[in-house]
Amino acid sequence: MKSAPQDGHTEKHPRIQPVGLLFDVPQEDIAHICLPEGARLEKLSASRLPCVLSIAREAEFVVAPLIGREVDAVEFAAILRRGGFCGHYIVLTPTLPCNDLVLQEILQTCPGLTVELAARKTH
To answer: How far, in Å, CA of 79 to CA of 54, rounded?
Structure first.
């Protein structure tokens, strides 16, 4: 007789690995951010922007810079929304005098999106 694994999951219901998208962000820039345990990170550069629409729906979270090579965080939020993204959007920002203005602009463009502004680490 087979017993259930210690973590409570059975073979019929394996744990699903969360997927996160890193858009135009080096992985070392997110070391300080608390991400879901065991998350699989997919890196996307600005040159692969059209791919975002096809995979946004599958992502649990997305990390992007405030100002990227091709788009800024507000424009990228709109692209994510068109792709069906409804996860957690983390925007890496430099030190800003008023984070609330950035947050407000993103939320006006994409109401209902969960947005977090995270300080970008300097090297």
So the answer is: 11
Rounded-to-integer distance, Cα 18 and Cα 75, Å: 24
- Confirm if 54 and 87 have CB atoms less than 8 A apart: no
- 19-30+44-119 to CATH, choices 3.40.50.150, 3.40.50.2300, 3.90.660.10, 3.30.70.330: 3.40.50.2300
- Whose tokens are 């502004």? That residue is 117
> What's the per-residue H, E or C state across 37-83?
CCCEEEEECHHHHHHHHHHHHHCCEEEEECECCCCEHHHHHHHHHHC
pTM reported for the whole predicted model: 0.80
Asked whether the beta carbons of 23 and 48 are under 8 A apart, the reply is no
**CA–CA separation, 92 and 120 (whole Å):** 5
Q: What is the pLDDT of residues 70-105, one digit of tens each?
A: 899 999 999 998 888 989 999 999 988 888 999 999
